Recover the amino acids of this structure.
């Protein structure tokens, strides 16, 4: 199976993008972002050629406000200020995150956004139902990036790619224009990410984007940065960094600041760093971190990592790896179908 956006050789733009990614991996972020909007740098989403803001709005936190109008205000302010990447998921806050985002995307805001959401379904029927519900809630006829959510079990890759599995539903949606690009996300184990990529390759499929935790503690413990990131950059897959502050347990370690966390993740060859912004002040902090970002050299990176070495060694501040605290589909297995 192959995705419709295909692999028809490497264009000059893709070649240059992959060359840049190789340089970044070799020596940190050594190039200045050439494009920006309202001071927010933009990067290329892997081989898709899509331009996305360096910072992305995490969807989970956008369904937590007591007043739905505050959620809408945060989303629209982000889009007005230069962010275009919106993260969401079918299961966030019982669907409330998507409902609020759909309302925020009215009045011309949809065309400002690169819209991503996720589904939990592992079989075709469940995946179809969840995709259609997401489209209805988000009040749109297309999702720019649809991702398989919580790939955290050894069985997940085979279920997604099985005959009658979720990928069949997503590929059909892609053919009809409901979905543009396809990715997956998980927070548990870099080895399961590698298994998902290998399973895709075995089926002749290549993902457009992959989402994973990338932060100042991941680098020390069961590391996505060390194991998965080089594979993605080599293959021209868009890199979506999440949990830059451990949501928010890394900050509770009192070893690093929020801005240091954001800058570390931005310094990696990430297309987007997705961060939860549950208030306008937190959104402003993320925007200013993006606008102020300057590539760090190897000694600056080493100094930042040295602050977190001891706290990170057992994964006690990365609960998404070491506990079921973040595992919605473990608590709700029916979501998988």
């Amino acid at each position: 199976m192959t995705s419709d956006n295909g692999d028809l050789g490497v264009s000059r733009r893709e070649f240059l993008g992959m060359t840049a990614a190789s340089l970044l991996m070799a020596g940190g972020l050594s190039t200045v972002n050439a494009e920006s909007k309202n001071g927010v740098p933009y990067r290329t989403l892997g081989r898709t050629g899509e331009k996305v803001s360096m910072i992305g709005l995490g969807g989970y936190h956008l369904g937590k406000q007591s007043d739905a109008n505050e959620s809408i205000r945060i989303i629209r302010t982000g889009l007005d200020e230069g962010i275009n990447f919106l993260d969401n998921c079918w299961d966030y806050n019982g669907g409330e995150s998507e409902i609020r985002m759909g309302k925020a995307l009215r009045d011309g805001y949809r065309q400002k956004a690169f819209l991503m959401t996720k589904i939990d379904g592992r079989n075709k029927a469940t995946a179809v139902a969840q995709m259609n519900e997401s489209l209805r809630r988000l009040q749109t006829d297309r999702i720019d990036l649809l991702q398989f959510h919580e790939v955290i079990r050894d069985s997940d890759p085979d279920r997604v790619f099985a005959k009658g599995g979720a990928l069949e539903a997503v590929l059909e949606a892609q053919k009809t224009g409901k979905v543009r690009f396809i990715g997956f996300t998980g927070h548990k184990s870099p080895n399961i990410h590698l298994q998902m990529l290998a399973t895709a390759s075995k089926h002749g499929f290549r993902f457009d984007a992959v989402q994973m935790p990338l932060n100042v503690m991941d680098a020390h413990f069961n590391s996505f940065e060390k194991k998965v990131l080089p594979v993605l950059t080599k293959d021209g897959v868009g890199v979506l960094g999440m949990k830059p502050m451990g949501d928010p347990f890394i900050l509770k370690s009192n070893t690093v600041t929020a801005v240091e966390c954001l800058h570390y993740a931005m310094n990696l060859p990430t297309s987007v760093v997705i961060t939860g912004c549950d208030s306008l002040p937190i959104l402003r902090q993320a925007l200013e971190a993006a606008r102020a970002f300057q590539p760090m050299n190897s000694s600056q990176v080493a100094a930042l990592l040295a602050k977190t070495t001891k706290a990170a060694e057992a994964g006690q501040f990365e609960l998404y790896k070491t506990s079921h605290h973040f595992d919605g589909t473990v608590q709700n297995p029916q979501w998988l179908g």
Residues 1-33 have pLDDT under 50 and may be disordered. The chain has 15 helices and eleven strands. The first helix runs from residue 12 to 27.
